[in-house]
Write a sequence for this structure.
């Protein structure tokens, strides 16, 4: 039984590594970028939709406030990227937010940051996978009614891949990430070409009528746009 347990553990998490072998787990840039950027990239799949859903509460006429929310997202991403560049140079060991908070503020703030990150990761995986499965199910009718099972299966698969280690699972994450980037670029290129050649572009939902729940002005409008920004 112990031998079988050891074989199963080796199959799931891979061979054990000594501390002196940590350098072997470093990723080249072509793999590190898609692996560690997949969190932000996954938001592209549902962020715009969430912004529009919030603004639709006030009706289609409020969609022109989308660029305010988008500008807020761009500003936030710019600050995050600049901050992370500084963090990487100041703390090259890779401890991230936990190490920074622990070093500068103490153990308790460090654990608080680590706990917040764990909650964030759980929510990110849940939302990202759910959004992805919903998109797949909209194209594959046979999956209708089985979205939960498919989502749970994908989460289990992602968990197993992570247990193998970042380096061993690097290509498994890199291939779909690069495919997603190419897909988004292709959609933008085809859409731009059609727009420039005079083709009328209209979504399937373009003919839907959205009935506003209420009108917003003043502080209510500011709150609506901020809520759209937070959702996106």
């Amino acid at each position: 039984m112990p031998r079988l347990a050891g074989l199963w553990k080796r199959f799931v998490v891979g061979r054990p590594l000594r501390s002196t072998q940590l350098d072997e787990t470093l990723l080249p840039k072509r793999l590190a970028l898609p692996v560690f950027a997949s969190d932000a990239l996954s938001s592209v799949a549902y962020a715009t939709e969430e912004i529009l859903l919030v603004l639709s509460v006030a009706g289609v006429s409020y969609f022109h406030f989308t660029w305010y929310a988008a500008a807020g997202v761009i500003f936030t991403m710019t600050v995050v990227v600049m901050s992370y560049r500084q963090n990487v140079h100041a703390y090259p060991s890779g401890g991230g937010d936990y190490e920074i908070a622990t070093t500068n503020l103490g153990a308790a703030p460090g654990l608080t940051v680590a706990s917040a990150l764990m909650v964030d990761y759980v929510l990110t995986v849940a939302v990202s996978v759910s959004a992805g499965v919903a998109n797949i199910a909209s194209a594959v009718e046979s999956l209708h009614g089985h979205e939960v099972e498919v989502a749970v299966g994908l989460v289990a698969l992602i968990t197993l891949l992570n247990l193998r280690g970042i380096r061993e699972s690097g290509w498994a994450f890199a291939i779909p990430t690069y495919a997603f980037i190419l897909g988004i670029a292709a959609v933008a290129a085809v859409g731009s070409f059609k727009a420039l050649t005079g083709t009328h572009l209209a979504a399937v939902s373009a003919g839907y009528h959205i009935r506003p729940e209420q009108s917003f002005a003043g502080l209510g409008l500011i709150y609506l746009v901020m809520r759209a920004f937070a959702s996106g």
